[in-house]
Amino acid sequence: MLAQLPPTLRDLQLPLRLRLWNGHELDLGPAPSVTMVLKDPSLVAQFTHPSLDALGGAFVEGRLGLEGPISEVIRIGDILSQALLGEGEATPPKRTKHDKATDAAAISYHYDLSNEFYALWLDREMVYSCAYFETGTEDLEQAQQAKLRHLCRKLRLQPGERLLDVGCGWGGLARFAAREFGVQVYGITLSQAQLDLGRERVTAEGLDAQVQLELLDYRDLPQDGRFDKVVSVGMFEHVGHANLPLYCQHLYGAVRAGGLVLNHGITAKYTDGRPVGRGAGAFIGRYVFPHGELPHLANMTKHLSEVGLEVVDVESLRRHYARTLEFWSARLESKLAQAATLVPEQVLRIWRLYLAGCAYGFAQGWMNLHQILAVKPLSDGSHDLPWSRADLYRET
Protein backbone atom coordinates (compact mmCIF):
# COMPACT_ATOMS: atom_id res chain seq x y z
CA MET A 1 0.00 0.00 0.00
CA LEU A 2 2.79 2.44 0.82
CA ALA A 3 4.16 1.86 -2.67
CA GLN A 4 0.94 3.38 -4.06
CA LEU A 5 1.75 6.77 -2.56
CA PRO A 6 2.99 9.42 -5.03
CA PRO A 7 6.81 9.44 -5.36
CA THR A 8 6.68 13.23 -4.85
CA LEU A 9 5.73 12.67 -1.23
CA ARG A 10 9.15 11.22 -0.45
CA ASP A 11 10.84 14.28 -1.97
CA LEU A 12 9.03 16.82 0.21
CA GLN A 13 11.02 16.07 3.36
CA LEU A 14 8.08 16.99 5.56
CA PRO A 15 8.13 16.38 9.33
CA LEU A 16 5.21 14.02 8.71
CA ARG A 17 4.67 10.36 9.57
CA LEU A 18 2.05 8.26 7.81
CA ARG A 19 0.67 5.34 9.78
CA LEU A 20 -1.53 2.79 8.06
CA TRP A 21 -4.45 0.87 9.54
CA ASN A 22 -2.16 -2.18 9.82
CA GLY A 23 0.50 -0.34 11.83
CA HIS A 24 3.00 0.16 9.01
CA GLU A 25 4.64 3.59 9.07
CA LEU A 26 6.46 5.87 6.64
CA ASP A 27 8.34 8.99 7.68
CA LEU A 28 8.37 11.66 4.96
CA GLY A 29 11.15 13.60 6.64
CA PRO A 30 13.31 13.73 9.75
CA ALA A 31 11.86 14.23 13.25
CA PRO A 32 8.13 13.98 12.40
CA SER A 33 6.02 16.42 14.43
CA VAL A 34 2.70 15.26 12.97
CA THR A 35 1.34 11.77 12.36
CA MET A 36 -1.51 11.12 9.94
CA VAL A 37 -3.22 7.84 10.75
CA LEU A 38 -4.87 6.38 7.66
CA LYS A 39 -7.71 4.32 9.13
CA ASP A 40 -9.39 3.73 5.77
CA PRO A 41 -7.41 1.97 2.96
CA SER A 42 -9.15 4.14 0.34
CA LEU A 43 -7.31 7.18 1.70
CA VAL A 44 -4.07 5.97 0.12
CA ALA A 45 -5.53 6.64 -3.32
CA GLN A 46 -6.74 10.08 -2.20
CA PHE A 47 -3.19 11.09 -1.39
CA THR A 48 -2.60 11.50 -5.11
CA HIS A 49 -5.02 14.45 -4.95
CA PRO A 50 -5.01 15.64 -1.31
CA SER A 51 -7.25 18.68 -1.33
CA LEU A 52 -7.71 20.41 2.01
CA ASP A 53 -11.42 19.66 1.79
CA ALA A 54 -10.79 15.94 1.28
CA LEU A 55 -8.22 15.70 4.09
CA GLY A 56 -10.40 17.71 6.45
CA GLY A 57 -13.48 15.71 5.57
CA ALA A 58 -11.66 12.43 6.23
CA PHE A 59 -10.64 13.70 9.68
CA VAL A 60 -14.16 14.87 10.52
CA GLU A 61 -15.60 11.52 9.44
CA GLY A 62 -13.08 9.57 11.53
CA ARG A 63 -11.33 7.97 8.56
CA LEU A 64 -8.13 9.93 9.21
CA GLY A 65 -6.50 10.42 12.60
CA LEU A 66 -4.23 13.37 13.35
CA GLU A 67 -1.58 13.42 16.06
CA GLY A 68 0.45 16.50 16.90
CA PRO A 69 -0.18 20.24 17.44
CA ILE A 70 -3.21 21.30 15.40
CA SER A 71 -1.44 24.39 14.04
CA GLU A 72 1.37 22.19 12.75
CA VAL A 73 -1.19 19.79 11.27
CA ILE A 74 -2.67 22.67 9.26
CA ARG A 75 0.71 23.95 8.09
CA ILE A 76 1.95 20.56 6.94
CA GLY A 77 -1.39 19.71 5.35
CA ASP A 78 -1.20 22.88 3.28
CA ILE A 79 2.36 22.19 2.15
CA LEU A 80 1.37 18.64 1.21
CA SER A 81 -1.68 19.80 -0.71
CA GLN A 82 0.15 22.60 -2.49
CA ALA A 83 3.05 20.35 -3.51
CA LEU A 84 0.77 17.80 -5.16
CA LEU A 85 -2.00 20.08 -6.45
CA GLY A 86 -0.36 23.45 -6.97
CA GLU A 87 -2.44 26.55 -6.44
CA GLY A 88 -5.17 25.35 -8.77
CA GLU A 89 -7.84 27.55 -10.30
CA ALA A 90 -10.72 28.06 -7.91
CA THR A 91 -13.89 28.97 -9.77
CA PRO A 92 -16.67 31.18 -8.46
CA PRO A 93 -19.10 28.97 -6.54
CA LYS A 94 -22.73 28.52 -7.41
CA ARG A 95 -24.69 31.15 -5.54
CA THR A 96 -27.33 30.04 -3.07
CA LYS A 97 -30.74 31.67 -2.93
CA HIS A 98 -30.80 33.39 0.45
CA ASP A 99 -34.32 33.65 1.80
CA LYS A 100 -35.35 34.10 5.43
CA ALA A 101 -35.82 30.38 6.08
CA THR A 102 -32.46 29.44 4.55
CA ASP A 103 -30.60 32.10 6.50
CA ALA A 104 -32.34 31.26 9.79
CA ALA A 105 -31.44 27.58 9.40
CA ALA A 106 -27.81 28.38 8.56
CA ILE A 107 -27.47 30.71 11.54
CA SER A 108 -29.03 28.16 13.87
CA TYR A 109 -26.67 25.43 12.60
CA HIS A 110 -23.61 27.50 13.49
CA TYR A 111 -24.57 29.72 16.41
CA ASP A 112 -27.06 27.56 18.32
CA LEU A 113 -24.41 24.88 18.76
CA SER A 114 -23.81 25.40 22.49
CA ASN A 115 -23.35 28.59 24.48
CA GLU A 116 -21.16 26.66 26.92
CA PHE A 117 -18.92 25.46 24.08
CA TYR A 118 -18.35 28.99 22.79
CA ALA A 119 -17.71 30.24 26.31
CA LEU A 120 -14.81 27.77 26.62
CA TRP A 121 -12.61 29.62 24.16
CA LEU A 122 -14.07 33.10 23.65
CA ASP A 123 -13.30 36.04 25.94
CA ARG A 124 -15.49 36.77 28.95
CA GLU A 125 -17.82 39.01 26.90
CA MET A 126 -18.16 36.22 24.29
CA VAL A 127 -17.21 38.49 21.41
CA TYR A 128 -17.14 36.17 18.41
CA SER A 129 -15.38 38.43 15.92
CA CYS A 130 -11.93 39.81 15.18
CA ALA A 131 -10.18 41.47 18.13
CA TYR A 132 -8.13 44.65 17.83
CA PHE A 133 -4.48 44.62 18.88
CA GLU A 134 -3.32 48.18 19.43
CA THR A 135 0.31 47.15 19.99
CA GLY A 136 0.30 43.41 19.24
CA THR A 137 1.17 42.53 22.84
CA GLU A 138 -2.37 42.35 24.25
CA ASP A 139 -4.03 39.19 25.48
CA LEU A 140 -7.44 38.20 24.08
CA GLU A 141 -9.45 39.94 26.80
CA GLN A 142 -7.61 43.23 26.30
CA ALA A 143 -7.81 43.03 22.51
CA GLN A 144 -11.55 42.36 22.48
CA GLN A 145 -12.20 45.30 24.79
CA ALA A 146 -10.04 47.42 22.49
CA LYS A 147 -12.08 46.26 19.49
CA LEU A 148 -15.38 47.19 21.10
CA ARG A 149 -13.98 50.61 21.99
CA HIS A 150 -12.55 51.04 18.49
CA LEU A 151 -15.95 50.35 16.93
CA CYS A 152 -17.72 52.77 19.25
CA ARG A 153 -15.17 55.52 18.65
CA LYS A 154 -15.35 55.06 14.89
CA LEU A 155 -19.10 55.53 15.19
CA ARG A 156 -18.49 58.67 17.30
CA LEU A 157 -21.18 57.50 19.72
CA GLN A 158 -22.69 60.15 21.98
CA PRO A 159 -24.83 59.68 25.10
CA GLY A 160 -28.50 59.25 24.29
CA GLU A 161 -28.00 58.22 20.66
CA ARG A 162 -29.81 55.20 19.24
CA LEU A 163 -27.51 52.46 17.94
CA LEU A 164 -28.68 49.55 15.78
CA ASP A 165 -26.54 46.41 16.15
CA VAL A 166 -27.22 44.07 13.20
CA GLY A 167 -26.14 40.54 14.12
CA CYS A 168 -25.62 41.32 17.79
CA GLY A 169 -24.47 37.85 18.86
CA TRP A 170 -24.47 37.46 22.63
CA GLY A 171 -24.75 41.22 23.06
CA GLY A 172 -21.16 42.02 24.02
CA LEU A 173 -20.94 45.12 21.82
CA ALA A 174 -24.47 46.24 22.73
CA ARG A 175 -23.72 46.10 26.45
CA PHE A 176 -20.34 47.79 26.03
CA ALA A 177 -21.80 50.65 23.98
CA ALA A 178 -24.61 51.18 26.49
CA ARG A 179 -22.36 50.97 29.52
CA GLU A 180 -19.32 52.92 28.27
CA PHE A 181 -20.90 55.39 25.83
CA GLY A 182 -24.38 55.88 27.25
CA VAL A 183 -26.34 54.97 24.11
CA GLN A 184 -29.62 53.17 23.56
CA VAL A 185 -29.03 49.92 21.66
CA TYR A 186 -31.38 47.80 19.58
CA GLY A 187 -29.71 44.52 18.64
CA ILE A 188 -30.98 41.78 16.34
CA THR A 189 -29.93 38.16 15.81
CA LEU A 190 -31.33 35.01 14.22
CA SER A 191 -29.89 32.73 16.90
CA GLN A 192 -32.25 31.83 19.73
CA ALA A 193 -29.37 30.57 21.88
CA GLN A 194 -27.51 33.85 21.47
CA LEU A 195 -30.63 35.86 22.20
CA ASP A 196 -31.44 33.97 25.40
CA LEU A 197 -27.97 34.36 26.88
CA GLY A 198 -27.63 37.90 25.60
CA ARG A 199 -30.82 38.96 27.36
CA GLU A 200 -29.68 37.25 30.56
CA ARG A 201 -26.46 39.23 30.51
CA VAL A 202 -28.24 42.52 29.76
CA THR A 203 -30.46 41.99 32.79
CA ALA A 204 -27.57 40.88 34.99
CA GLU A 205 -25.74 44.13 34.22
CA GLY A 206 -28.84 46.25 34.87
CA LEU A 207 -29.01 47.49 31.29
CA ASP A 208 -32.61 46.59 30.42
CA ALA A 209 -33.51 50.27 30.09
CA GLN A 210 -30.76 50.80 27.50
CA VAL A 211 -30.43 47.55 25.57
CA GLN A 212 -33.15 45.69 23.68
CA LEU A 213 -32.27 42.46 21.88
CA GLU A 214 -34.67 40.79 19.45
CA LEU A 215 -34.92 37.79 17.13
CA LEU A 216 -35.27 39.57 13.80
CA ASP A 217 -34.17 39.26 10.18
CA TYR A 218 -32.38 42.29 8.72
CA ARG A 219 -35.02 42.36 5.98
CA ASP A 220 -37.60 43.25 8.64
CA LEU A 221 -35.73 46.26 10.04
CA PRO A 222 -37.69 49.53 10.25
CA GLN A 223 -36.87 51.80 7.32
CA ASP A 224 -37.79 55.14 8.85
CA GLY A 225 -34.28 56.34 9.70
CA ARG A 226 -34.87 56.05 13.43
CA PHE A 227 -31.28 55.11 14.35
CA ASP A 228 -28.41 57.57 14.73
CA LYS A 229 -25.75 54.93 14.08
CA VAL A 230 -25.71 51.39 12.68
CA VAL A 231 -23.07 48.72 13.28
CA SER A 232 -22.89 45.26 11.73
CA VAL A 233 -20.14 42.88 12.89
CA GLY A 234 -19.59 39.45 11.31
CA MET A 235 -22.99 39.54 9.67
CA PHE A 236 -22.70 40.27 5.96
CA GLU A 237 -20.83 37.01 5.33
CA HIS A 238 -24.22 35.31 5.77
CA VAL A 239 -26.14 37.62 3.44
CA GLY A 240 -25.09 36.15 0.08
CA HIS A 241 -23.82 38.00 -2.98
CA ALA A 242 -27.26 38.27 -4.55
CA ASN A 243 -28.72 39.96 -1.46
CA LEU A 244 -25.93 42.46 -0.78
CA PRO A 245 -27.79 45.34 -2.51
CA LEU A 246 -30.87 44.57 -0.39
CA TYR A 247 -28.78 44.34 2.77
CA CYS A 248 -27.13 47.71 2.09
CA GLN A 249 -30.50 49.26 1.27
CA HIS A 250 -31.87 48.17 4.64
CA LEU A 251 -28.87 49.64 6.46
CA TYR A 252 -29.42 52.90 4.57
CA GLY A 253 -33.11 52.94 5.41
CA ALA A 254 -32.52 52.30 9.10
CA VAL A 255 -30.15 55.24 9.73
CA ARG A 256 -31.00 58.94 9.84
CA ALA A 257 -29.50 61.47 7.44
CA GLY A 258 -26.07 62.39 8.74
CA GLY A 259 -25.79 59.07 10.59
CA LEU A 260 -22.99 56.53 10.34
CA VAL A 261 -22.93 52.88 9.26
CA LEU A 262 -20.00 50.65 10.20
CA ASN A 263 -19.71 47.22 8.57
CA HIS A 264 -17.09 44.81 9.98
CA GLY A 265 -16.66 41.49 8.19
CA ILE A 266 -14.54 38.96 6.33
CA THR A 267 -13.82 39.78 2.71
CA ALA A 268 -12.69 37.63 -0.21
CA LYS A 269 -9.24 37.73 -1.75
CA TYR A 270 -10.61 37.74 -5.29
CA THR A 271 -13.04 40.29 -6.72
CA ASP A 272 -15.38 37.59 -8.02
CA GLY A 273 -15.67 36.11 -4.53
CA ARG A 274 -14.20 32.73 -5.42
CA PRO A 275 -13.07 30.75 -2.35
CA VAL A 276 -9.47 30.05 -1.45
CA GLY A 277 -7.93 27.25 -3.46
CA ARG A 278 -7.34 23.57 -2.85
CA GLY A 279 -10.63 23.07 -1.04
CA ALA A 280 -10.27 25.07 2.20
CA GLY A 281 -13.25 27.24 1.33
CA ALA A 282 -15.27 24.20 0.33
CA PHE A 283 -14.59 22.60 3.73
CA ILE A 284 -15.86 25.68 5.56
CA GLY A 285 -18.98 25.83 3.39
CA ARG A 286 -19.70 22.15 3.93
CA TYR A 287 -19.06 21.84 7.65
CA VAL A 288 -18.92 25.28 9.28
CA PHE A 289 -20.82 28.07 7.54
CA PRO A 290 -23.49 26.64 5.21
CA HIS A 291 -24.45 29.16 2.54
CA GLY A 292 -21.76 31.59 3.67
CA GLU A 293 -20.40 33.80 0.88
CA LEU A 294 -17.52 36.27 1.12
CA PRO A 295 -17.73 39.41 -1.02
CA HIS A 296 -14.65 41.35 -2.02
CA LEU A 297 -14.08 44.77 -0.48
CA ALA A 298 -14.62 46.39 -3.88
CA ASN A 299 -18.05 44.80 -4.22
CA MET A 300 -19.15 45.80 -0.74
CA THR A 301 -18.09 49.42 -1.16
CA LYS A 302 -19.84 49.42 -4.54
CA HIS A 303 -23.15 48.27 -3.06
CA LEU A 304 -22.92 50.70 -0.13
CA SER A 305 -22.24 53.56 -2.54
CA GLU A 306 -25.04 52.62 -4.91
CA VAL A 307 -27.71 52.83 -2.19
CA GLY A 308 -26.53 56.32 -1.23
CA LEU A 309 -24.04 55.71 1.58
CA GLU A 310 -20.69 57.49 1.26
CA VAL A 311 -17.72 55.32 2.21
CA VAL A 312 -15.43 57.51 4.33
CA ASP A 313 -12.96 55.08 5.91
CA VAL A 314 -11.70 51.52 5.36
CA GLU A 315 -9.38 49.56 7.64
CA SER A 316 -7.93 46.10 7.08
CA LEU A 317 -7.68 43.90 10.18
CA ARG A 318 -6.39 40.73 8.49
CA ARG A 319 -3.41 40.30 10.82
CA HIS A 320 -5.62 41.06 13.81
CA TYR A 321 -7.99 38.24 12.88
CA ALA A 322 -5.12 35.79 12.38
CA ARG A 323 -3.98 36.51 15.92
CA THR A 324 -7.53 36.37 17.30
CA LEU A 325 -8.02 32.94 15.77
CA GLU A 326 -4.69 31.76 17.14
CA PHE A 327 -5.93 32.68 20.63
CA TRP A 328 -9.27 30.94 20.06
CA SER A 329 -7.63 27.79 18.71
CA ALA A 330 -5.11 27.60 21.55
CA ARG A 331 -7.85 28.08 24.15
CA LEU A 332 -9.96 25.33 22.61
CA GLU A 333 -6.98 22.96 22.35
CA SER A 334 -6.27 23.49 26.03
CA LYS A 335 -9.82 22.41 26.94
CA LEU A 336 -10.51 19.51 24.58
CA ALA A 337 -11.67 17.15 27.32
CA GLN A 338 -14.24 19.66 28.54
CA ALA A 339 -15.30 20.53 25.00
CA ALA A 340 -15.93 16.84 24.30
CA THR A 341 -18.64 16.87 26.97
CA LEU A 342 -20.45 19.77 25.30
CA VAL A 343 -20.52 18.86 21.60
CA PRO A 344 -20.40 15.61 19.59
CA GLU A 345 -16.98 14.24 18.67
CA GLN A 346 -17.43 15.03 14.98
CA VAL A 347 -18.38 18.62 15.75
CA LEU A 348 -15.29 19.07 17.90
CA ARG A 349 -13.11 17.81 15.04
CA ILE A 350 -14.72 20.37 12.72
CA TRP A 351 -14.03 23.23 15.10
CA ARG A 352 -10.46 22.22 15.77
CA LEU A 353 -9.70 22.31 12.05
CA TYR A 354 -11.80 25.42 11.46
CA LEU A 355 -10.17 27.64 14.09
CA ALA A 356 -6.60 26.53 13.41
CA GLY A 357 -7.16 26.53 9.66
CA CYS A 358 -8.61 30.03 9.62
CA ALA A 359 -5.75 31.33 11.77
CA TYR A 360 -3.36 29.94 9.16
CA GLY A 361 -5.47 31.19 6.24
CA PHE A 362 -5.65 34.77 7.49
CA ALA A 363 -1.92 34.77 8.23
CA GLN A 364 -1.32 33.57 4.66
CA GLY A 365 -3.61 36.21 3.13
CA TRP A 366 -6.19 33.78 1.79
CA MET A 367 -8.92 36.21 2.90
CA ASN A 368 -9.10 39.56 4.61
CA LEU A 369 -11.25 41.42 7.10
CA HIS A 370 -12.32 45.02 6.66
CA GLN A 371 -14.09 47.63 8.71
CA ILE A 372 -15.95 49.94 6.33
CA LEU A 373 -17.29 53.20 7.71
CA ALA A 374 -19.95 55.02 5.69
CA VAL A 375 -22.12 58.07 6.24
CA LYS A 376 -25.65 58.81 5.04
CA PRO A 377 -25.17 62.35 3.70
CA LEU A 378 -27.48 65.21 4.57
CA SER A 379 -29.72 66.58 1.85
CA ASP A 380 -27.00 68.99 0.68
CA GLY A 381 -24.42 66.20 0.53
CA SER A 382 -22.59 67.28 3.65
CA HIS A 383 -21.81 65.50 6.91
CA ASP A 384 -20.18 66.49 10.19
CA LEU A 385 -17.45 63.89 10.55
CA PRO A 386 -14.09 65.14 11.91
CA TRP A 387 -11.49 66.22 9.37
CA SER A 388 -9.05 63.51 10.50
CA ARG A 389 -8.89 60.23 12.42
CA ALA A 390 -7.06 61.85 15.34
CA ASP A 391 -10.07 61.52 17.65
CA LEU A 392 -10.02 57.73 17.29
CA TYR A 393 -6.64 57.45 18.95
CA ARG A 394 -6.71 60.36 21.39
CA GLU A 395 -6.42 59.26 25.01
CA THR A 396 -9.63 59.60 26.99
What's a quick, concise take on this entry?
The chain has about 400 residues and is of the alpha/beta class.
Explain this structure.
- It is built from 16 helices and eleven strands.
- The chain has 396 residues and is of the alpha/beta class.
- The termini are far apart.
Question: Topology of this structure?
Answer:
Layout: H1 7-11, E1 16-20, E2 25-27, E3 34-38, H2 43-46, H3 52-60, E4 64-67, H4 70-85, H5 100-111, H6 115-121, H7 140-154, E5 162-166, H8 172-181, E6 184-189, H9 192-204, E7 211-215, E8 227-233, H10 244-254, E9 255-268, H11 280-287, H12 297-306, E10 310-316, H13 318-333, H14 336-339, H15 345-364, E11 367-375, H16 390-393
Parallel strand pairs: 1-3, 5-6, 5-8, 6-7, 8-9
Antiparallel strand pairs: 1-2, 3-4, 9-11, 10-11
Helix pairs in contact: 3-11, 4-15, 10-12, 13-15
Keywords: Lipid metabolism, Methyltransferase, S-adenosyl-L-methionine, Transferase
Family: Belongs to the CFA/CMAS family.
GO molecular function: methyltransferase activity
